[in-house]
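Title: Prediction job returns without error message
Component: structure pipeline
Severity: low
Priority: P3
Assignee: unassigned

Description:
Job completed but the reporter wants confirmation the result is attached to the right record. Sequence as submitted:
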Amino acid sequence: MSDNRSPAANRIRPESFDDMVGQAHLVGKNGVLRRLAASGRLSSMIFFGPPGTGKTTCARILAKNSGMELRHLNATTASLSDVRAVASDADGIFGEGGILLYLDEIQYFNKKQQQSLLEYLEDGRITLIASTTENPYYYVYDALLSRCSVFEFKGVSDKALFPYLKRILPKLHEGLTADDKALEYVARCAAGDVRRSVTMLEGAAAYVKGAGETHIDLDTVKRFTSGVMAGVFDADGDVHYNLLSALQKSIRGSDPDGAVFYLAKLLEGGDLISPCRRLMVIASEDIGAAYPMAAVITRACVESAKELGLPEAAIPLANAAVMLATSPKSNSAYLALHAAQDDIRAGRGTDIPTHLKSPLFKGYKYPHDFENHYVPQQYLPDDLKGRTYYKFGDNKTEAAAAAYWDKIKNKK
């Protein structure tokens, strides 16, 4: 029996993939998680994406369909002893069908704590589903990451949220109705977060119930939202991605005014994570080798922003945006990467030269033993010998590097 005191988002949590909203690429008709659930065999996974997008719900549905015992820990409060307790249950009656450990906010486990999970995953006592709102490739230990499949959850569009909110109205309050404009407003202001939308609607439902009414209008829902998020996500989610695109193009075009404007618009929408990620990409994609310290400074600003939280987070991010917009630009490393990827995807370069292979490195010349710490030798595979991926940019930093290497490499 559900506890009526618990939040509505918990009481009406979907029990099947068909009841979920959003994440069609994962739980839709041909979604990978739906197919995994149908197979009855689960491997360890990492779910990452914004809050309120269905990560916990998916874990519960997967556990139910697999017949596994679900245990839930939150890394903000759990300890190694909690993990060991779950593993010990796997040896008893509770683990007869296998134990699925759902570890929320795994980014709060340090390296040692994450390493402790490896033993249990290796011997099969625990199947892990870890969730995080952060990029797992930054925050999850490599050895653990290599043992898990990674799935990205995306913010739910207001177009998808609208019919869902309409469907759950009776579950919040018997006979409850709402204007379409009110539901559309809630869906927009939720900024892709299903839990947030339900919470706002629950507040509006309680408000009208307290007045002995059963209908929610636009004025009512506005009492439970700040309104600042409205317009950041449109019906298809395109506005949000257009803003991120405009932010990057403004910085790439060396326009600090446009950069600050689009950053402010994203932050006013309550979105902190997306601009943080985009700024870090821009630092390496568009500024790159022209000003290598840009990536370091941007990273520091992003970490400060995450620690501060909104609204103060806007200040270090504005510093990063202005710095990037006014920095010299180069995409030489970005173009080099794509050129190398083209050869790899074409099946080229499969055999690494013998002198570069461990453990003997037979024939390898150690550059530091030579004048100017340089000696000519082959690094690319034989079928790519002579290939040039990186070309020096025409900015001051890369021009200086090019002049230096021309001097060293052309030395007779």
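Comment from assignee: result matches the submitted record. Strands lie at 45-48, 69-74, 99-104, 126-132, 149-152, 177-178, 215-216.
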